[in-house]
Amino acid sequence: MRLLIVDDSNIIRTRIARVAADWRASEFMVVGMARNGIEGLRLAAAHRPDVVTMDLTMPEMDGIECVERLVEMLPEVKVLVVSALSDKATALQALKRGAQGFLYKPFTEAQLGAALTELVS
């Protein structure tokens, strides 16, 4: 599974990449890491990921708008929102726009691995 990570935090991008690479049979290959929605869309067009982890609060283009555009571009893509926002309305908005899962920050490696596995099962 080709994985694209979209998050404005370098620490979070690196952590997600590490967990995905180490998770079980390592079915995930990171094809790109973006700092905002604009970079995320550019990388998605270039690498056509199967799975995307998406932060919601980012500069230039937030995750809600990026999810909507991403799903228009790649209808089969699976999007896991990974956000510190505990606002249920925002989570629901992301799901309505096309995301298939939501994981709250902070998360454990096991929680992230389980969420990614569930997303692609």
Account of the protein in words:
The protein contains five helices and five strands, in the order βαβαβαβαβα. By secondary structure, the protein is of the alpha/beta class. The protein has a single domain, classed as Response regulator (Rossmann fold), CATH 3.40.50.2300. The chain has a five-stranded parallel beta sheet with strand order 2-1-3-4-5, sandwiched between helices. Helix 2 (about 35-45) packs parallel to helix 3 (about 65-75).
In short:
The protein is α/β, with parallel strands linked by helices and 121 residues long.
Question: Could you outline the blueprint of secondary structure elements for this entry?
Answer:
Layout: E1 2-6, H1 10-22, E2 29-34, H2 37-47, E3 51-54, H3 63-73, E4 78-83, H4 88-96, E5 101-104, H5 109-120
Parallel strand pairs: 1-2, 1-3, 3-4, 4-5
What CATH calls the topology is Rossmann fold
- The first-to-last residue Cα distance is 11 Å
CATH superfamily: Response regulator
Low-confidence stretches: none
Mean pLDDT: 93
Structural class: alpha/beta
Features:
121 residues; 5 helices; alpha/beta
